[in-house]
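SAMPLE LOG
Freezer: B-3
Tube label: C17
Construct: single chain, 454 aa
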Amino acid sequence: MMGLLRLELRRNVTPFLLPTLAVLLWISPYGRSVTASAVWTRRGEALQETLLGLGPVIAGAAAWTASREKRARTGELLVSTARGGWSRTLPGCAATALWGLAFLSAATGFLYGLTAHTASWGSPPWWPVAATFAAFLAFCAAGHATGAMLSGRFVAPLTAIGAFLLLVVAGTLKSTGVAVGLVSPVGQVTDPYRALFYRTGHDLPAVELIFAAGLVAVALGPLALRGAAGGPLVRTAGIILTATGTAAAGAGLWLAGTGRVDAGRGIAVIPRLESRGDGRPVPYTPACDRGPIQICVHPALKARLPDVAAAVRPVTSQLAGLPGVPSRIDQRPVDGPHITDGVLSVPAPFDAYDKRGPVTGRAARSMRADTAAGLLFGAWDGTDPARQAAVLAVLIAAGDPPDASALPTRGGPTPAVLAAAHRLAALPPPTRHQWFATHLHPLRTTHLPPNALP
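STRUCTURE (predicted):
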């Protein structure tokens, strides 16, 4: 058997596909995550998303290897060999899987090694790695079974296309919140940055792992039940393997069916696998700059602190030292700005952290708007015209455009609000700061008309 495996490793088609796999890997979320912030949970999720390209290719390669006997029309000739059909076909499947797993292991080692070198907080998540490898083996086994049962030169490309379409459908079901879609290895439903702040369980990758392991057995088991597969012992092994795989895949689907996606919190909940400590805050020491109003981020995002501080400095420099204004700002996964124990919490632009370079554009404007509204009023409802004008004036003075995108609220400012904001923003910075120092308390406690602003 080992000699046959070595022969299959030498003649396997997968090594010729490795350049294609490398290109698919780099244009996938894997490649984009390498240039983004080094966050363990984000990198683990990116590894799973590579299956959208790698899975169909390895399924097609496995189908091509398995259909070799049918393409060469050597079935009758091989009946007289000492080995049965099942023992002849398994080394080919193993060779394809070993080549593919070697490539995937190298990709995982590179990604996790780079993360270990640059990450400033956390440890490697191994559950996504296990789920990725199991799903990769499932693609390989399913492709091999398809190639062994069907004949024709178009079996391999059609298998790859079919696997891709099936993966797209499964990923769509998962991303839209359909419970059974949670067995799909692709399709983002969880917020990878939430795990930095709150404990999250491993129920989702565990379900993906159980389902993928079941598919491997379901794909390879029926190959032992064909007439030329082997003797009674082989058929018994095929029955046991098929039954076990069916049970595992069914268990995975059942567990997924009991789950739900909480889009608001960015988590997937599977009650049967939920841990008691899930959802508890994760203790950490934030990374802060040394400005007059401290800007603090999670230590895993420490590398982005200079960009964050530079983005909000045009606002904090105007409001530092005002009575009642917090002296510290924390970026957290919150819906809007609010003050707790004298610390202002503002939404973190996690999407911007997935991109290379400084935080600019809409993400920076939104961050400045949340910061201005939070520092001035502690929260933001956007219903008071004078408060709206005050926030807009700070943003105009910071260089943001005076339109609806500059305010943390729906709808654009009225002409009266816009005129009042321009008047206040046009004041010299010391005069504007003194006006806020005198009138900030009335702005917070009473409803003033926009013409009350200078």
